[in-house]
Structures are given as structure tokens and as C-alpha cells.
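In the previous chapter we treated chains in isolation. Here, by contrast, the input contains two separate entities that must be folded as one system, with a combined length of 595 residues.
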Amino acid sequence: MSVDTETVARIAALARIKLGEDELAAMVPELNAILGWVEQLGEVDVTGIEPMTAVIENHLRLRDDVIDADPLTGGGKRGDVLANAPAAEHGFYGVPKVIE
Amino acid sequence: MTDLTELGVAAIRDGVAGGDFTALEVAEAFNANVAAAQSVLNAFITPTPEKAIEAAQAVDAKRASGEPLGKMGGVPIGMKDLFATKGVQTSAASHILEGFTPEYESTVSQKLWDAGAGMLGKLNLDQFAMGSSNETSFFGDAINPWRRNDGGNAALAPGGSSGGSSTAVAARLCPAATGTDTGGSIRQPAAFTGITGAKPTYGRCSRWGIVAFASSLDQAGPMARDVRDCAIMMEVMAGFDPKDSTSLELDVPSWEASLSPDMTGKRVGIPREYRLDGMDADVAKSWDDGIAWLKDAGAEIVDISLPHTKYALPAYYIIAPAEASSNLARYDGVRYGLRDLPEGAGLQDMYAATRAAGFGAEVKRRILIGTYVLSAGYYDAYYTQAQKVRTLISHDFKNAWSLCDVALAPTAPSAAFALGDKSDDPLAMYLNDVYAVPASLAGLPAMSVPAGLNSEGLPLGLQLIGREFDEQGVLNAGLALEQRAGFVAKPEKWW
């Protein structure tokens, strides 16, 4: 399978990355070279093989259902959470207007 | 007096504990080397000399009052700029995280500080750890301190993604550094700079506070001058962390205390599929040397087959970008990092403009590949197929472990290449990780040990891959190689 300019533009829109026309034009052959190369995976017989979900066997844990079990990842950290926000306003993340 | 910057982790730890020198003297000596090399080698994104001094003074004060100094007491280290460090910029070598100053400390870095280590600075790397030459960094190339013996003085790549780490350790700017390995990012740069680097079993080191690239593959590990130093540092870095859902709930073995170069009764597997057509002659010779050395150490050498080896890289270049495209969705100009808000733009336009301005070309390429292979209609053909192939690669190793205890292979298909050599050709760059990626896909412990110099006077590394949880077997085989390789070469100082 190969991708055309239109497909790459659609993918870039899905990925929320603005690409200029030159960037888009350069990206098409690069992505096609990579996709052409990974295509060889199609020749592997995977009949009856399960896709990998965990590389080392492990189980998912549940933490105790208590507030602030780990103070580092508990609540009450608004100042810390907003400290690196590019536009914090009134204790919230500021964003451009989304509702007219 | 000894040049303190020639000492490794164990020698510094023991020397500080024994009162041969103070931790402050060590920190000052390395700070001076960092400052003198910074404008040339560009190993660090953010040097933090004051942090190194502060930690050293704390260790010296502890010693004065007779308190224990910790497993790395008085050892200053470099921290790959992918680990969140409280109050110190954590950039992932990207523009989008430039200026990001975490309010928290990653688990692995915290463990190192708790063990008495100090921070010399945050090290350069490929942007978001995506690259094999450190050339995708937003903060410029790190320069390999090694040069070819042809007198041409071409600037060489230090490998990647942990290229600042490898540069700094090889140039004696720090005795050890952290690295992270997603598809060879510790081992390949270690090989390119004549140092030792290890990645433990996936899940040994907590990923909490490490900027995520491909979460099912990312694993932190040590980069240092020798095997013992790696064992010491890995012991400190590893351990269960409830804040990482894939953290292994296992005790950390005493890897340093159990080090043994005696390979009697051990079987070393030589994967036949790793002997590629057109293999570099010096690399092939160093592999043969390694086989002879392990035989000399008492090991039995056995031929093994890892039949899906050739599919490891293409599978990796579906799985890693897929995970990256998902992980990097968080950089949206809202919560942290860069925001690009064009005049009159709405929220969606802001996302797209921010990500266009904040990500470098390789990061964009991988996000697009990842988005494509996960998109409706292509998911099964690409992503599911790659995950099935990953299962087969893991099976290959499981089958091999019935015949051998550890596998030996080259770390990389060549010695360090020149900056710019492969940066225009993503595929040529990817192929550099052909020997490193299979162990990453299988989550296995692996390390690179310097094996010698090639005909151009550049270091080559040998790779050991072990069973899951058997870091000890990898370290021991590494030690057996190290003792026989007798690698003492170091880059001549030109910077």
C-alpha cells in the first residue's frame, strides 16, 4: 500500500500537525519508503499466533481505594499542575474560545 | 594526585567512603570537565554544577557524622534529559518541552539521589529519544569524542538516542549516566563510544517520570565505564514502583556482589541469523574474538537460530511509532510546554500549529506513521500483524533459551558514522539498530561491552542478551568479555 498527498494530509489532520505544502510533498515519498519496507511483515505466517499484549508476564494491580493513597499522585496539587501551563487563568487551563 | 575524573563509580564510591578524597573534590573535578567541553561536545542540554556540589556536600557531611553514604555516595552522574527532574528543565531535547520545569522527580532519578549520587546536568539526546545519532535533538548535535585515525577529524555521531550520555561518559565528563533504551538507545551509543551500557528486563526500572516514547518498550538503564559500575548503578535504578503499572514486583538482586566472570557450565548462543551478508569485516572479527573469549572463560558455544530476526526492525517501526503517536498526543499547547496560537485561531488550529512548531521532522514522521498504522482500515494489516510478529520474535528467544543461557552478538553493524551520513535517509538510520531491536521487542536484559578498536581506531561493542530477569547472567558474561578484551583505549582529548 502506498500513500498519496491527500492521504498524508488526512493523517496529518488526524494527528493535529499542520503541514505546509512543501513539508507535505517531502513527507509523501518518505512515508512510502518506510511503509514499503515494513510491508515485508505481510510475508510472515502468523496463523494461530496471538498479538503481543505484554512482553513480560505481569498482572495489573488495583490500588487501595483511598483518597491520597500516594500524596504525589493524589489531589490538592492545582498549583503544581498549572505551574507549566502556557496560559493558566483563574486556576484553570486557558484555551481559545470553543463555544460561540 | 589521581585525576579524579579518570575514576569510575566503584572507585569514587569507595574512595569517598574511605576518605581518600571528598565528594566535593570529585564533583568539582567533573564540573570543570563539563564546563570545558560543553561548547565543543554539546553533551549537556542543561549543566547543573550547583546540584552536583550540593549533593557532594551532603555526602561529605554524612561521612563527617558517621552516617551511611548510600550505594552511590559521592558519585556525580549525568541524567538523560528524558527523566523529569524537579525544578530543572526537562526538554526531551524538543522545542515543544523547552522550558518545561517539572514539579516532581522521576522515580529512577529520585532513587539515584537517595543513594547519594549527585547531578552534573541534563544530557542531550535525540528528540523524544527518536533517533540513532543524537542528530534529531532540538539543542544541536552531541559530538562523539572519538575520531578516526585517518587524520581527517570528521565529527562522528555518538549514537542515539542516549548520545549525550555516551559522549559524556566517554569524554570523562561524568563517571556514569542514565540512559533509556527503546530499540537500542543505550547499547548502540555505548558501542559507538567505547563504554558499557545495560538495559534490564522490561519493568525492572520504573517508567514513572520518564518522558514516554513507546511505553511497551521504554526501559531505563545505566551507562558507565565498566560492567561493575553498571551493576552498581542498575541496582540503584531498579525496583518496584506502584506508580508504574508495568513495574515488576520483584526484589532487586545484589548484582554487584554476585558478579563472576567464570562461565564454566554456561552455554553461549550465537544467533546464526545475525551473521548478515556483507557484514563489516571488523565487526565480524570482533564477534569472533568475543566467542573465543567466552570459550576461554569456560563457556560452551552453541549455534542458535532466531528465525524471525529480519522482521524485528520492520515490526519495531510499526509498534514504536504507533505507541509514540498515542503518547505524544498529550503535547497540545494546553497543559505544559509550547503554545502556538495564531491570530484568530480556534482550539483545533492551536493544536495543529503548536505541534507543527514544537516537533522536529523525525518526530512528525513517526507520529504520522503511527497515526496511519492505527487508523481505521489499516490497523489489522499493520499494527496487529506487527504485534503478532513481536510474539514470534519473543518465541524465538524462548526457544533459544532451551539451548543456551545467554546470547552473544555485535551491538551495531558498524562503528560510529559521521554526522550527516545517514540523517537524510530515515531507513538507513533505522537499520543501525538491527542487532539491538530484537531484545527490546522481547523485553529482555541486554548490554554492550567494548570489545576493541576497528581499523579506523574506533571502538566496537559486543552485545549480550539474556533470559528475562537474568541480568546477572548478562553482567557475568559481560565481565568475562571485559576482562579478556582488556579495553583501555580512550579518546585522545582534542576538545
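Residues 21-38 of chain A form the longest helix (18 residues). The mean pLDDT of chain A is 92. Compare these points with the single-chain example from earlier in the chapter.
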